[in-house]
Amino acid sequence: MESLARGGTRWKRFAVVMVPSVAATAAIGVALSQGALAASFSVSGQQFKVATDRLDGTGFVQYGAIDAQKGGKQVPVAVSGFSNAKIRNLCQSVVVPVPVFGDVSMKLSAGGGDTPVEAKNLYIDLDQLSADATFNNIDIGVAAGSTTKGPGMHKGDKADPGSFAQQAESATLTHVKQQAWATTAGTFKLSGLKMSVAKGKSECY
């Protein structure tokens, strides 16, 4: 990891991320492509993949938390939040194993044209990410419950308000590939929404 400094700090493979899962969008369908709706989703005990060419966000915060999964399993995650985010060329995928039938893949793409995907008060719980990232006016080592530059801690998160966190006024991420467990957005608008369901494994990366 490169040295940390205020201003335009560029990090590679930094655990920051952005977008809700394909299955969340599938649940509310084409309505998301026509307007801005609230979205909340998690796949109990299962990860989903997200890839995007570029995310431009303002009001960033990140802190550690524990996700409770079905059957009592607990998963440590990094929660990344953005007050506002614009996302270009988004791909989201999840593979669901179906007894007897086999794997079924759901894949979504959006924001590939002139109009990017837009999200407000976006949180995503992840445990893996690779990306190139630039953060502006970043503060490292603040208390999770006292951040001021982003949307703050998400209500209901299993996290210590006094634990380590970081925040920044804005962030740009490119060439993003990530795995996540859950996501929530106050509003989430998809432009140029395309979705497919197919037998077998068909993932974003």
TrEMBL record:
InterPro entries: DUF6230. Pfam families: DUF6230 (PF19741). This is Cholesterol esterase.
